[in-house]
Amino acid sequence: MASFMLLLRGNPSDWTTMAPEQMQHVMGRYFAWTDELRAQGREVSANQLMPLTSKVVSQTDDYHVVDGPYIETKESVGGYYIVTAKDMDDALAVARDCPALLHGSTVEVTQVAEGAPA
Amino acid sequence: MTSGPRSAASPRADGQVGGSGQPLPGAAHGIVEHLFRHESARLVSLLARWLGARHLDLAEEAVQDALVQAMRTWPSAGVPDNPAGWLHRTARNRCLDLLRRSGREVPPSLGREEVLARQPAVDRGPASTSLEDTGFDPDEATGEDGLRMLLFCCHPALKRPAQVCLALKLCAGLGTDEIARAFQVPVSTVQQRLVRAKRTLRQEEATLDLPPAAELADRVQTVQAILFAIYGEGYVATTGGLTRDDLIGEAIRLTSLLAAHPLGDTPATHALLAMMLLQTARLPARSGPASPLLTTAEQNPAHWDQRLISRGLVHLDRAASGDHLTDYHLLAEIAAHHALPDADAGPDWQRILGCYDLLLARRPGAIIRLNRAVALANTGRSGEARAEIDRLRHEPELAGYHLFHATDAELHSRVGDAAAADRAWQRAERLTNNDAERAFIAGRRAALAQGAPAAGAGTEPSSAGEPSLLT
Predict the structure, then answer these.
(1) What is the topology classification, in CATH, of domain A2-111?
(2) What pLDDT digit, counting tens, does each position of B220-241 carry?
(3) ipTM, 2 dp
(4) CB distance B68–A15 less than 8 Å?
């Protein structure tokens, strides 16, 4: 089994108008998803990032720090999951069930190098 | 849960209608049903009281932010031992953040001992599955602030639709989209209504203090009226499904809250709550098909929620304590007769008719006349019922009301006029946009076509839940 990182990118401003009940349902979907992954014998670890704290450091322009990287659309990385999977196809299958897709986010899947901490 | 006075007074317990829902996602992680909705309402009331009503928007924003943070962190970090306490602390800290960031002064009350004292206990052992286990006393914690918020929403400067909207948002924790769906209006309409209502309240310098004693009785009556309207909207909701249960559940929860507070603990409030509980007890389970057109004879008492019936009877008993009769008393009595039918003879239609006579004398109206006509038909006075229905045919209030035509159809069926009955069913069918009702009507028409006699007694069109009755 290899480890894959599922990077969730979304639009956090959606949350500011969502009904509380709806938020609880969204949260419930994440629980159901990770419960299912663990039931399949996968290791799952996750971290959510603080909303709208994304900054980009770049060497051009004298190490200038800017808001971003997707400031135009206010899209940002909302969090990531590290999930074990057989291969990329297996990891993509996991990503396809990620509840983030249901509310307009995208999920970027990357394999984590062997030996890296999961 | 038994229906003793303690549980009857618990808003949280009363908010649960039906009982046998599907297992909810997150339940295994210790998250109770409607946790976010109810906590958001509770916290907005709490924070707005501390910050002052003029900072209502800030309180709402802080609570929303706390929910977002919970939604984002709980799935990965795990659900805290005391979810409600976590939300409370997070929302409060967020309030302080927002205040500081905007350069506004932090109200002294937000740091005082009293605040800490009323903070829910945290870290009380293993994850609990119900709020009762978390050290909260729901009555104590929600009662006072929740009631003040209800009274605030019923400020006399606001029109009824604005009061209802505001109460659903602030006291019931519904989102603007949920309110819009419930009333079948665009989301933007609800948003506008809320913005304008809040602006009006700011202009009026409305506070969350209790109204002066002279105004209190009126204000409590307005609260009762909007809760009745919310219940009625849920009871006749044409959208079916969750919205209906949500409105009914919230109406019952908030009315329980009102009844549990010394200021709202009046016979009229208990009568209103009794009516809601007794009426709701006979609604089909939340997943079942909704058909208010089911005749009493077709209803199966085995499917009724006996727990709600006994709770309703407790409140009916308390409603009898005063000497002041309200419409709610009569509606509750009607609901009680329906909920306690004789095993062979069915409900006591003679007494139901008596209630409608009294209601009609107090509040003449086409809907009550229609309901009274049904009671007439069921006491064997079909001829009089027929005549009344024919007189009511031209009432503008009823022309577009599908249950009028359904009643008309049932009465025609009874005297064997299948053709007239079918025409009336068709009119009823055109006027409903509820799938379950449409299916029910199709069944009735099919039975007519096969020459089957009308099943049971006449329909009873929404005896209590009709919002146009009182509002």
Answers:
(1) Alpha-Beta Plaits (3.30.70)
(2) 999 999 999 999 888 766 555 5
(3) 0.81
(4) yes
